[in-house]
Each structure stands twice: as structure tokens, then as C-alpha cells.
Amino acid sequence: MEIKKISQNFFKTASNKIESNQTNPFGVSFKGNIITADIITADVFTKVGSNLAEKASKKSKMLTSAIVGSINAVSKSISTRLDSVVTFGKRIGANAADLWDKANHIEVPMPNIESIKNIVKEQVAAFNSYSVPSLKKLLIPSIEDEFKNILLAGGKYE
Amino acid sequence: MNNDKKLHNIIEALSQHSDSAAVGVLERVGTNCPDDEVRRLTARALIKRNTHDALAVVILEKGKGINDLSTNVAMSSINELLSLKDKAEAIKLLEEAQETHSDEMVRDTARSVKALMAFS
């Protein structure tokens, strides 16, 4: 067999079978029905086109109204939320300002340095003199520590 | 000033201290000291305070005050009790010890000291 014939048989398809009485020059088939050239007229095109245009305009109107409606709803909800955020921010700001005012008016009492110095001096003087009247004015923890220290120094505290 | 004099003054100061926490210091540090002289001075200081808490240490506790194993400490404590002007609280505690204390030795000591106080 010649290679040319083989290739012709191999690439032979249904579309290649063009009947002689067909007037459709494109040979296009829709679900097996061949569309003849007589069906496709200018009138058909205008009729189909008007219906399509009408449907498209109706659909576009509906779509547009839906989009506009949804945009309105979204913008309303955004504006509501923004309002609440703004109110919240204002309230926080007011609270912060109030807190700052209060903080500025709080007076923290500082210990009197002179009184602390005097207490320390008294304690040192009492331990230096070791007299009963001065010792009995001392704080109990100080006396206890001194009591233990003296016992430890004399080897009398375990 | 030597350490003995310092100790004496500290214990004396604790006996006169206005803070009742001084009793706790005397009990914790003084009555548990291995040195007899310190225990003697401490027991005397506690009796001088003449309060319920201070007297309870030297009357009700075993091995302390009038119940001390050292005769010197015990006799010194009894002498101090006998020299108290107001003996009411001491007698009350001695009666309590005599009647309700779990240790027989403490009960006997309390009975003897109470008898001595009745005669003084």
C-alpha cells in the first residue's frame, strides 16, 4: 500500500463527507442536524438579537438594582460600625483624660527622711550606751537580734 | 561594757518593754539557752512582767522557770514569784497547773510553790 493512501484513510473523518446537495458552505452540524443556508436569514438575526438585547437589559437592570441595594446595605452597616467605633474611641479618650487628671491629683505621702534618721540615731545610741532605759525604747526585732548576737559571741546560743 | 552586762541589760529591758512581743523573745531565746545564768535571768524577767502569758511560761512549761532542771534557776524563779506584790495571776496559774497539767512533776512543783506562796 502506498503511504499517501494510508494517510488519506487514516485522516478520513465524518466532516470530510460533504454531500453534494448541501448548501452550507461551513458544513457545521448541531447535534447531528445540518443547518442549511436557508434557515439563516437576516430576519432571524434581528429577531433573535432583539430578544437577547431585551433579556440582557432586564437582567442588567435586576443585577444593577441588586448591586446597588447590597452596596447601600454594606455602606449602612459600615457607617453604623464606624459610628460605634468613633463613640468607643471618644469614650476611651474621655476616660483616659479623666484617669490622667485623677493621677495628677493623687498625692503619694513620702516618708519623712528626718524622722527615719532620728529613729536610726536613737537605735545606734541605745546600742552604744546599752542602758536599760534606752534599750527598752527599741523595737523588739532589734533587741532580739542583739540578744542572739551577744549569746552567739559568748557561745551561749545554739 | 562586757557581754554579761550587755546580756543583763537586754533581758532587763525586755522585762520592762511595753510591747508584749518581748515575752516571745524571752521564751524563744532566753529560756532555751543552754547557759543557766541566762535562763535564770530570763525566768526572773518573765515573772517581773507579771502577765498571764509571761507567767504561763515559767509555771506551766516543763523544763522552764520553776520546772527548770537547774536548781539555781528553779529556786531563783520561786523566789521571784514569792516577791511579787500582786500574786493573783501567779496563784491562778499554779492552781491550773496543779489540777490540769499532764505532767506529774509540774503538778507537784506547782502544788509546792502554791503552798509557799500561801505562807508568804
- Strand proportion of chain A, as a percent range, falls in under 5%
The total beta strand count of chain A reads: 2
Strand proportion of chain B: under 5%
Q: What structural class do you assign from the helix and strand content of chain A? A: mainly alpha
The overall pLDDT of chain A, averaged over residues, is 72
Global morphology of chain A: rod-shaped
Radius of gyration of chain B: 14 Å
How would you describe the overall organization of this protein?
The complex is a heterodimer of chains A (158) and B (120). Chain A folds into 3 domains: 3-34, no CATH class; 41-108; 113-153. Chain A has 158 residues and is mainly alpha-helical. Chain A is built from 5 helices and 2 strands. In chain A, strands 1-2 form a two-stranded antiparallel ribbon. The model of chain A has no long low-confidence stretch (mean pLDDT 72). Chain B has 120 residues and is mainly alpha-helical. Chain B has one domain. Chain B has 7 helices and no strands. Chain B has helices spanning 3-16, 21-30, 36-49, 52-60, 71-82, 88-100, 104-119. In chain B, helix 6 (88-100) packs antiparallel against helix 7. Chain B is globular. The N and C termini of chain B lie far apart (38 Å).
